[in-house]
Structures are given as C-alpha cells and as structure tokens.
Task: structure prediction
Amino acid sequence: MCLSPALLHLYDTKDAVVVIIDVFRATSTIAAALHNGAKSVIPVATVPECIELGSKTPNSITAGERDGKVAEGLQYGNSPSEYPTEFIKDKTLVLTTTNGTRLLHMVKDAAVIITGSFLNLQAVSEFLMGQNKNVLLGCAAWKDRFNMEDTLFAGAVVNAVKDSFSINCDSARAAYHLYQRTEGDDFISFLMDSSHYIRLSAYGLEKDMEYCSTPNLHPVVPILKGKELLIHS
Amino acid sequence: MCLSPALLHLYDTKDAVVVIIDVFRATSTIAAALHNGAKSVIPVATVPECIELGSKTPNSITAGERDGKVAEGLQYGNSPSEYPTEFIKDKTLVLTTTNGTRLLHMVKDAAVIITGSFLNLQAVSEFLMGQNKNVLLGCAAWKDRFNMEDTLFAGAVVNAVKDSFSINCDSARAAYHLYQRTEGDDFISFLMDSSHYIRLSAYGLEKDMEYCSTPNLHPVVPILKGKELLIHS
Result:
C-alpha cells in the first residue's frame, strides 16, 4: 500500500492490480458518474487538456475544480452529486483532478488499474479477491502529503480482503488500524478531524464529503481501458 | 509529522524543533549510550567515515551494523544493550546507521535537532513542551518506506504533548490513532505485527526490540551540537 505518489517508486506495480484512491472526491465522482450511466470517464491532468479533449469528444462534458470551484473554461465541478442519471447517462465525462489523475498516470506497468472509494468499497474488494494477483492500494494523497480519507479507505479494503491476502507492508497494517478506530462504518465522523475535511468545509462541501463517505452507494468497478475508465463487467 | 525521509521536502523545518526517530534501533542506542555516560555520539553516514572518524577521535569506539551484523571494519553493533555504563562511560561513540543518520543529515535549517525513542519518550515530550516552537516529528522509516515503530512513537509523543500544540497534519493524527490502538503502553505487543520486527527477529533480535519498546528507561534528550549528539541539560 502506497501512502503518497511521492513514494510510488518504492513499489513494484508490474503485473499487479493497482487501486487508485482519491476519496475527496475524484474517485467518488468517477464511481457515481459511471454507476449513473456515463459512457466513460476520461481522466486528464490539466484544464487545457480537458477543454481540448472535450471539444473533440461527441456528447461529452468537461469537469474539474481548482481551489474548490469549477475551473475556468470547464462546465462542471468535481462533486458526485452533479452527475445524476438524468444528466450523465450516455455522456462521456472528461474529468481533470490534480492528485488522483496524477497518480493514475504515474502507474505505468500494472496489469489492471481500477479506482476505489467508499461508494464502491464492496465492489472493489470483491474484484480484488477475484483477481489472484498482487494488489497495490495507491492513495492520491494531497500534494504528496499523507491524507486520512484515502488511507482510511485503504484500511477498509484491507479489512474486507484480509482473509484472501497476506499483508506485506506496514502502511497497509497502519491503514487497517485506522479502520479499526471507526465505529460501525461511520467514516464521516472519523474524517471530520482531517485536513481535507477542514479545507473543503471552508467551501461549504460538508454534504459532499458525507456522501463520499457512505459505503456502497455506487457498486461498480471503474477499470482503465486505454485512456478511459469504464465499468468492469 | 513526516512519515518518511522521501517526504521531508514537503515540510518547513526552518526554526523548528525536529525530532529524529529511528526506534529500531539508532535513536534507542543513542539514548542508552548517552544516559550511560558516553561523552557524545557522532552519527555518520557510511562505514568508511565511521572508521576514519574513529581513528581520529581519542577514546572513541566505532559502531554500526549492516544486515543485522557488525559492519566490517567496525568494533560494535547497533544494540542499546552493548553500551552499559562500565563500557561506554566517557567514550565517544561514532555510530553509523542507514535510515536515522540519513534523515538527521537531511535536515538543514532547523533551530534544534534532537533524537527520540520510547526509551526517552517522556524526556523528549517535556523538552518539546518547553520550547515554544513548531515541531516536526521525523520518522527515519526503512529505505524510505513508512514503518510502524517510528510512527507509533510519534503517536505517543502526540499523545503526550497534544494539550500544548495544535496538530496540523493528517500524519500526526494517524500516528495518534495508532497509539490509541496500543493497550497500557504495551508497545512491543503492538509492534510484533510489523515489517521491522519480523525482519530483525530473523537475526534473533527480539530482546533488543523489546528493550527499545520500553518507555523511559533512558530519560535524556540527545541534542545535536555541531556534529555531536550530547545530553541537553
């Protein structure tokens, strides 16, 4: 398990399943959009790339935030609540986020790349147990800094899959201990004392974070095929 | 709080108090040697530097391990039990370790650098509360990987000083949660499920690790003055 993109070089991702984790909020939004019927989600690194790809892609929408607001030149933000079925069905979501997208593009040689969040916790865990491969849980973190929400989610996955895997690093063990500190999967109460919660609360995003901390509302496994995230079936 | 030397660049150490943490076993050995009467401890990065400095320093001994054994050309190892008073009193210990020494030399602009371990937990905590400065708890980790023992110690420090400081990063919060998972300061039981414990057990070092996990056996604060670690008085 990798706590920050700055530590990714320490891990062997070759032929592994890598789970990209960016709970607040990229990988939550990806699960919601796909579950609600988006044709695909294309993660891109920058706002200009997002605009360019959006203009080339039929029936697409461009989305992304910087500093808690829709980025200039884009149409929508980075909240799962912006993508209900009646809006997103059959559209391609071109999404730019900083931390999650960066990590996703850093992983080069994995067998499989999927994205995980509390919204698809069980689906991701079951997928991992069915793969018979090494797994790397990769936290997007925040500007390379350890963050609580991604690590807590990793701990919830460790808890769910622990009987099917051997744990071979202390970060996975520590994540599991964090998970054990939550009560009855009340993740949001635990996460209220975290840097990202405090930061995003200043933008009035408490409801968004509560939504992102609710297990299994969008039980799909987004899997990277080429440059697109699609539902694994 | 910094979980790995590979993340140190994310933190501002200017004018801060930095606590170097390498529980298994460099900073434990440093606390033991100084408390048992060593004149000073000089941390160096490499075996050749250790040999050279040892040859130049009167009444010194050279020490360091590689792969759990005394390194070739040096006299002693990296176990606190090797440095009782009758042996170490008034001597200078020239010590080479990989992870702890490297981190110590990476910190350039701190106001104060001290070393911490369970053996001097309370002394370090009281020192920090008396300084009125920002504090960075810096884990030596293992080859840049997060490790359990250094983070757990950081959590024990957070617990001890939390009423005197505001916590402004998720790693310190997570370390505190880890500490909360221990029972009655029985640190060694908690640490038995950790990578370093498993690795060092293969060298028969269980007693060493148990010793290093015992709080407050060597209640001194090793502080860096020039190139030497001395007892803060």
User: Anything to note?
Assistant: DSSP finds ten helices and nine strands in chain B. Chain B touches chain A at residues 3-4, 6-7, 10, 143-148, 151, 168-171, 173-174, 177-178, 180-181, 193-196 (CB under 8 Å).
